[in-house]
């Protein structure tokens, strides 16, 4: 059982290393880790990541959502491994060969660098997409069926887990067993606004449905008091 204060990876979606580091330091003890994603990485790069994580006692989820040919994605995995991320994301739509190449690159580079191997997570269907959005990109099937297909592909290709919405957690947990990591954004406490997220659930409902970790950004980072918001989520999870 993961303790409530370790469940949440807070999404630090800012281009500013100083702002990200200050918030990460304030939230240490109230969240399980930090997520640095595309906005941060495009603005601040690997040096920015180091500036945030140096001396910080929280695992790093590096959310780069890699999606390219196998050789290029494997190279990107090798390039970011010295940052010692605990999790890295890639798009399952890149296909089985791409995911296998990423897993092999992670294995080899971890051995070479003497670092723990990061867990590779496949992004399935973005939580900002509804069934109509999916149809508009040519996928005419229920969201849950598409997520289940992509998660199975990721599992067979050797990934450690997937990113999915809370709505799909129960089915994926049954399908892929207790050890497959379900990293789950689209989390909204009843007191927070949905913003651009469409497939959402409260933190406690998502964990009950089978989420391993929760990814939560704006409900914490945009709150008047981010530490109080994070504590409120821990309390709700503990109840
Ligand atoms: O890979 C992700 O983390 C991700 C996948 C997904 O389907 N939906 C999703 O929202 N995310 C990320 O999760 C975070 C959610 O942030 P909030 O909507 O502010 O809680 C953002 O940093 C997104 O990039």
Automatic annotation (TrEMBL):
Keywords: Decarboxylase, Lyase, Pyrimidine biosynthesis. Pathway: Pyrimidine metabolism; UMP biosynthesis via de novo pathway; UMP from orotate: step 2/2. Its EC number is 4.1.1.23. Substrate binds at residues 13, 35, 63-72, 127, 188, 197, 217-218. It is an enzyme of class 4 (lyase). It catalyses: orotidine 5'-phosphate + H(+) = UMP + CO2. One of its GO terms (molecular function) is orotidine-5'-phosphate decarboxylase activity. One of its GO terms (biological process) is 'de novo' UMP biosynthetic process. Residues 7-233 form the Orotidine 5'-phosphate decarboxylase domain. Coiled coil: none annotated. The active site is at 63 (for ompdecase activity), 65 (for ompdecase activity), 65 (proton donor), 68 (for ompdecase activity). Homodimer. Belongs to the OMP decarboxylase family. Type 1 subfamily. This is Orotidine 5'-phosphate decarboxylase.
